[in-house]
Design goal:
With 298 residues, this protein is α+β, with helices and mostly antiparallel strands. It is built from ten helices and 13 strands.
Length: 298
Amino acid sequence: MHITKDQKIYRNLTIQQKHLFLQPVWLDASLGQSNWSAYIIYDDHDKILAAWPFTHQHKLGIHRLNPAPYSAYNDIIIFDKKAETAILQQLMKTIPYLSLIKINQLQPLTTPSWGQQIIKRRQSIVYRPNLDDYMEAIQPRKRSLIRKALNTYTITATSNPRELLSGMKESFDRQYIPLLQSTTLQRWFDIFDNIIGFIIKDVDNRILGSMIAIEHQHILYAVAGGKNYSKNQPGIMEGLYWHLIQQGHQRQCDIDLCGSSLPGVADFNRRMGGSESTYFQHLITRPHFLLPLLKLWK
């Protein structure tokens, strides 16, 4: 078994059925073509056993192997599950010394002692042929706020980075999440055909919130969104979510809300008709004594 770092090989893998955040086009759009790579793991006959895309940062002597920004999941793709333990052992030997790694897997890694595993929550909304069925799945108080939003605010499509970022900035600030760069957001709209952006405004034409979603393989991923907390009107996020649901229904897509273990966000997603499932976060350090540093990793 051996391992190489090769973006070109990763681009040629047949992974179109995998989720959005593993696609080369997503990595290009979020990072730029020259700012990511991938480990490719082979058996002794040069058959590809696994692959893992990442971006590498090196600061203060510490390596951080990161997913692309706003990637909900960044799985190690294992094509041969029987070889999982050997694959992960080989990967650990290759990772630079003094490294911090955070991997969010939709399917768990079963190898014992592969870092610290934390069960995380994600929410999604399944496609329903009848739009009324979506409304029935929403909690009554949220239904009332949706109706208020439809009667009070205006929701319009936009690809303008300034408008979209102004709508979500305060939500990102409150969660201590770095706001999207306008250049990255513009690259999303330049690269993706199936991307939608929309803003919600009040009667004075002030932007109250915004949301961005990208469709891939009949799933609409809600990759970014938020509201302007300085405008204290009710129903802003409910209006945005209902518009997202309508877009998913028109496209006959499931909607991946990209999950949150933050109690307030997860509860909101459930009240808006989201069903909950799990994904698995693996925290890996080399050496092990660096693990506490991961708690400081935003």
